[in-house]
Amino acid sequence: MRAAEKAPRFPHLRQDFAASLVVFLVALPLCVGVAVASGVPAELGLVTGIVGGVVAGLMRGSSLQVSGPAAGLTVLVLEAVQDFGLAVLGVIVLAAGLLQLAMGLLKLGRWFRAVSVSVVEGMLAGIGLVLIAGQLYAAAGLAAPAAGLDKILQLPGALAGSLTSPTALTSLALGAGTVVVMAGWTHLPRRARAVPGALAAVLLATAVSLVFSLPVATVEVHGLLGSIQPPDAGAFGQVASLSLLGTVLAFTLIASAESLFSAAAVDRMHDGPRTRYDQELVAQGAGNTVCGLLGALPMTAVIVRSSANVQAGARTRASRVLHGVWLLLFAALLPGALALIPLPALAGILVHAGWKLIPLRSFAPLWREHRGEAVILAVTALAIVTVNMFEGVLIGLALAVAKTAWTASHVRLEVMDKGAGPVQAFLSGNATFLRLPRILDTLESLPQDRPVALDLSGLHHLDHACRTALENWAARHSASGTDQVRLTAAAETETDARTGASPD
């Protein structure tokens, strides 16, 4: 009998190879655009994309999601570069990567699924608003204010002023054209959409700029090796700064949450292996550790590239590793091509990306069905715009915890007065200190000259503050000369049930 043929080592190489080319074409303009918007050399965006493909791509976790520089961290990176300098960025990314590694090894990845979706969506909405405002300045060739709120408040005047400048108006028109191309690309026939919209928009804007010799700024090219600047001893000396530690924590939490939420979304797109969250967090940490050592941008899983990978038919991790190889070959062999790309075109790509971060379609249904969650989303976004990224997220998390605590402490107090005998009060639900004022107001309004029977057997939870307050109220009511308040607790009811006795 003939021996069975040996199974091929890479049975899905054809599908993965084709998908990797698609992801490469999607990632290329986004890597460059995110880097420029973050205030770092364009090549550093490619470095992060390469690391995200080759390093994180080789590791286990989520099989099909793709990592690289993300628009969601652009605002935070820009603030870090402005506050601490480009030389310290590598230290921040390295520290964040090591924290992610530690959290993954301690199996904390799954806990990120407990973060309120409203906080995450509010975070992305706030980032999107600041990103759009900042890139509109860049599209007009203007310098943007540092603060997020100033970016928005000063934007109308800046855009109005650009209308009187032919150079600024040309730059703004090229950026607006890029947004229009990207927005309309999804409505083209399927064959035309084989070329990713972002790449098509950049190529078209570059061609228009060259043919008509438009007076617009283009990407500055430093060379791949010239852009890589590993952090030195002086940069590590700033680690003790409290503000830098806060930035590291913000990078860690936001990058981890974005990556793991992206993994959950990607899992819904395919039928392959599910994400192992702790291992995915380790992969993200390893990638960011390498990015930090190279002085590059932080990386996260990116839903745009990941969805393109799935839709292109990828089957294994090979597609994302190959996409990193294509980025490396481009950066090594064709770096001069970056110098032809107009900056307004990259700004237009990021304006479009920022718009997609704002959950406009889902907000109205959320307001109708879960108004509290909608408030959390809006407050988180507003806090990020008016304060900063880290404190805005903390405000959103605190509000989500407070809302959950308030909802969980639902309690009901029913009073029955038959006119004769004791007044009967029944307390059910979860009695916590959050509901204590309302409970005491009702009990203290009961007649002082009547005996009271307070039944607590319907409570699922009674915290220490409530128990103490109820005992103190009972003592005060009994001291007025009436019969002692009768308290029936859950334990008493259970004892009565076991013995067959019925409380009177």
From TrEMBL:
Region (Disordered): 484-504
Transmembrane segments: 17-37, 84-106, 118-143, 163-185, 197-219, 239-266, 325-355, 375-402
Keywords, in A-Z order: Membrane, Transmembrane, Transmembrane helix
Pfam families: Sulfate_transp (PF00916)
Biased composition (Low complexity): 488-504
Protein topology in the membrane: Multi-pass membrane protein
Domain SLC26A/SulP transporter: 13-380
InterPro entries the record matches: SLC26A/SulP_dom (IPR011547), SLC26A/SulP_fam (IPR001902)
Keyword hit for Transmembrane: yes
Keyword Transcription: no
Cellular localisation: Membrane
UniProt-listed PANTHER family: SULFATE TRANSPORTER (PTHR11814)
Protein name: SulP family inorganic anion transporter
Gene source species: Streptomyces rutgersensis
